[in-house]
Specification:
By secondary structure, the protein is an all-alpha fold. The chain has four helices and no strands. The protein has a domain of about 55 residues. Helix 1 packs antiparallel against helix 2 and helix 1 crosses helix 3. It is elongated.
């Protein structure tokens, strides 16, 4: 079983436990998550099923876009400051 499948299985168990206990709050306490996150999991499982609970890959966000642009222009061999020194 892959990590993705394990996560889906764990996330599916929370709504099932909430249904069994007839309340989301105690199910969230047992699962160790906040009630807000518990409702998010519950609604995602109701709306999208098991695939709605799968982990989603996040895109990379550059915190410093100017630095990212500069780094893309650096030659592949990198900066060699030792050659720039005068003797």
């Amino acid at each position: 079983m892959s990590t993705r499948e394990k996560l889906i299985k764990a996330r599916l168990s929370m709504p099932a436990l909430a249904e069994q206990l007839k309340s989301v709050s105690p199910a969230c306490q047992r699962a160790g998550i906040s009630r807000t996150r518990g409702y998010e999991v519950k609604y995602a499982s109701e709306k999208y099923g098991a695939e709605g609970l799968a982990p989603v890959a996040r895109r990379f966000v550059a915190l410093y876009p100017a630095l990212t642009r500069w780094a893309s222009r650096v030659p592949p061999f990198g900066l060699n400051f030792g050659q720039c020194r005068s003797t």
